């Protein structure tokens, strides 16, 4: 019985981690590209 419960709990845990992991990587890549561009512009204007 304990072995079956562990497998059932592991299945939902993997699906939940796979869903948020895919969108998080895409958002991180997009957010990492735009920030460096405006940062350089602000530094030049401040100077």
UniProtKB/TrEMBL annotation:
Organism annotation: Neoroseomonas eburnea
Ranges of compositional bias, category Low complexity: 1-13
Protein name listed in UniProt: Uncharacterized protein
Sequence segments annotated as region (Disordered): 1-47
């Amino acid at each position: 019985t304990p072995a079956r419960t562990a497998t059932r709990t592991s299945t939902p845990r993997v699906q939940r981690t796979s869903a948020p992991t895919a969108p998080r990587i895409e958002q991180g890549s997009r957010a990492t590209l735009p920030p460096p561009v405006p940062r350089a512009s602000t530094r030049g204007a401040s100077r």
